[in-house]
Specification:
single chain, alpha+beta, Helix Hairpins, Immunoglobulin-like, Cytochrome Bc1 Complex, Chain D, domain 2, five-stranded mixed β-sheet, 7 helices
């Protein structure tokens, strides 16, 4: 009933919501439609009463209004009726919240990490228990349709907020904490991810995509990714670490992005605005990853890079270095 009302109101007033692509999306939409309907009725009801009184009690028709000091009935109505409405909305909202927050026992668990300015998704061989071999994908989250999902989320730098409009899910990602959100995708296709908590200069670019596919296609994709996760070539591993952590701010060429490009970096003399020049060797790259703001490259004095200490291991840094050596 409320969905029909919502469709009617949207057709009349031109207000549309994103398509529903998750099982629990109706919980949000039904409550929204109810509040929308009450607001429309209240607005036009109030305007109607005001118009009636303006016409009925215009001064030309009634030079002197009757003195009415008190009306117990009117005061009771305008106190009790709104109270019932607001309490009803609150009870409905709490019911919908607890229903949406109930985590299924057999849900697939995926790690989500937010950092300036990208999303990274971590999958495991056993996604129910998050154990076994793992792999990560930047920007794109793959999901099987009609499968309960739990996202276990955190952030590495500042507060972010993970939002997928078509799923009606939104949850903050907080450094040092794990927050969870659950949903079941019901439609195949691509759905946009946004960050809805201002997180710095490139906040508006912190987007991603949820790609919902069939269960068979997801299983094939996951098997392929797990196989590739066992690659031992340091250059290939370094290129993946670059894609997951560095590509937002640094190009593989020499072109300027938020930070300087990596092309031709290794073995080149680097000029700084706050330190003596050095040759870009393994030690310099390591320092730039762990303590990036100690030395400011000329022309990038206002750029601030997040430190990756505790995020990238020594082996990860070695792989990135080997990858940078290949860039000309």
């Amino acid at each position: 009933m409320l969905r029909l009302i919502g469709d009617f109101l949207q057709a009349i007033f031109g207000v549309t919501l994103p398509e529903q692509a998750a099982a629990g999306a109706y919980l949000v939409d039904d409550l929204y439609n109810l509040v929308f309907l009450i607001s429309i009725i209240g607005f036009f009801g109030l305007m109607g009463v005001m118009t009636f009184f303006i016409i009925r009690y215009h001064r030309s028709n009634n030079d002197k209004s009757a003195y009415i000091p008190h009306s117990a009935l009117a005061e009771t109505i305008w106190t009790v009726v709104p109270t019932i409405i607001f309490v009803g909305i609150a009870v409905w909202g709490l019911w919908a919240f607890f229903k949406a927050e109930k985590i299924p026992q057999d849900a697939m668990r995926i790690g989500v990490t937010g950092k300036q300015w990208m999303w990274t998704f971590t999958y495991h061989e056993d996604d129910r228990n998050r154990s076994g071999s793992e792999f990560k994908t930047p920007h794109m989250m793959y999901l099987p349709v009609d499968t309960p999902i739990v996202l276990e989320m955190t952030a590495t730098d500042v507060l972010h907020s993970f939002y997928v409009p078509s799923f009606r899910v939104k949850r903050d990602t907080v450094p040092g904490m794990t927050t969870k959100v659950t949903f079941t995708p019901t439609k195949e296709g691509d759905f946009k991810i946004f960050c809805t908590e201002f997180c710095g200069t490139d906040h508006s670019r912190m987007r991603g995509t949820v790609r919902v596919v069939s269960k068979e296609r997801f299983a094939a994709w996951k098997a392929r990714e797990l196989k590739e996760a066992n690659i031992t070539d340091p250059v290939e591993l370094g290129s993946r670490i670059y894609a997951n952590n560095c590509a937002t701010c640094h190009n593989v060429g020499s072109e300027r992005k938020i930070g300087p490009g990596f092309g031709g970096l290794f073995g080149k003399k680097r000029e700084f605005s706050n330190a003596e020049s050095v040759v870009a060797d393994e030690e310099y790259i390591r320092e730039s990853i762990l303590n990036p703001n100690v030395k400011k490259v000329k022309g990038y004095e206002n750029a601030v890079m997040n430190a990756f200490g505790g995020i990238l291991s020594d082996e990860d840094i070695r792989h990135v270095t080997e990858f940078i050596k290949t860039l000309k």
